[in-house]
């Protein structure tokens, strides 16, 4: 059974979300400050985080950045901030999704399920590709080198690597990584690609995602081991 951590200072909102998630079959862990959330994450096995952006001791972006130093579990922001700059900041720091307040608890449950489903994507690679994805640990490995990925980055890379050399436009990639039909800007995909390339660069795979100006992205396998 998956465990969802709710890091939210409003006790009523936290309790409401917990009730709906428990009814949906999830285990729940709760924290009401950023530090409590970090301590919880270090001491429990958490499969997904619901993280409020406005916390009493620090902002959720800072908590997200610290979480990403030791966990790849999906992070869904709970926020009243709707500006694109805020959304992009959260994604750049390793967040996977945004849920804007006020929200429907049923929508939150649906988003949680959708993000966890992405972790079960088929990550099998073609025999010609030396890049390996592990959906259980959300990692990409090339030779002896490994890098951690967020759930969105993993889903994006899995979609690209599933059909090597196929050109995907941004709308196709959005459909692959967001299953709830939301409207997402092209800049969001570009932001994820930029972050993914930075991580792949650490395992000598930065050139495998090729950008085609005005068209989209494709995966070009590299079989030369580092």
Identify low-pLDDT runs. 122-129
CATH T-level topology of the largest domain: Rossmann fold
General form: globular
State the fourth-level CATH superfamily of the largest domain. Response regulator
Number of domains: 2
Strand order of the largest sheet: 2-1-3-4-5
Rounded average pLDDT: 85
Along the chain, the helix and strand elements come as EHEHEHEHEHEEEHHHEE
CATH class descriptor name of the largest domain: Alpha Beta
How much beta, percentage-wise?
15-25%
Radius of gyration: 17 Å
Helix content: 25-40%
Oligomer: single chain
Name the structural class: alpha/beta
**Number of helices, where a helix is a run of at least 4 consecutive DSSP H or I residues:** 8
CATH architecture tag of the largest domain: 3-Layer(aba) Sandwich
